[in-house]
Design goal:
It is a single chain. About 40% of the residues lie in helices and about 25% in strands. It is of the alpha+beta class. The chain folds into two domains: about 50 residues, no CATH class; about 50 residues, Irregular (HU Protein, Chain A). A three-stranded antiparallel sheet has the order 1-2-7. A two-stranded antiparallel ribbon has the order 3-6. Strands 4-5 form a two-stranded antiparallel sheet. A hairpin with a 3-residue loop joins β1 and β2. α1 packs across α2. The radius of gyration is 19 Å and the shape is elongated.
Length: about 100
């Protein structure tokens, strides 16, 4: 169970599912399906180049990073880094204020 008294620590997926189940008064199986549905929806939208905004929480986006030339740190040889979409999260005002 996620608790405010526990201090700073990481929370894994199963603990998050347990917390959702407790807070929403649903089964852990239903909470797991809900979390998977959320993750799937965010992933699918970002793959298509869209953004997902959850008001008060934040925005998930995946801007395109252009191709560029980098350096191999061991050999200092130039290498080509291809263009890619990089997932990012921009926290909303509600989350910022809560923290």
């Amino acid at each position: 169970m996620i608790s405010c008294d526990e201090g700073a620590r990481s929370v894994n997926k199963s603990e998050l599912i347990e917390h959702i189940a407790h807070q929403a008064d649903i089964s852990k199986a239903a909470a797991g399906r809900s979390l998977e549905a959320l993750i799937g929806a965010v992933t699918k939208t970002l793959k298509k180049g869209g953004t997902v905004t959850i008001t008060g929480f934040g925005t998930f986006l995946a801007p395109k990073r252009e191709a560029r030339v980098g350096r191999n740190p061991r050999t200092q040889a130039a290498i080509k880094i291809k263009a890619a979409r990089v997932p990012k999260f921009r926290p909303g005002k509600g989350l910022k204020d809560a923290i």
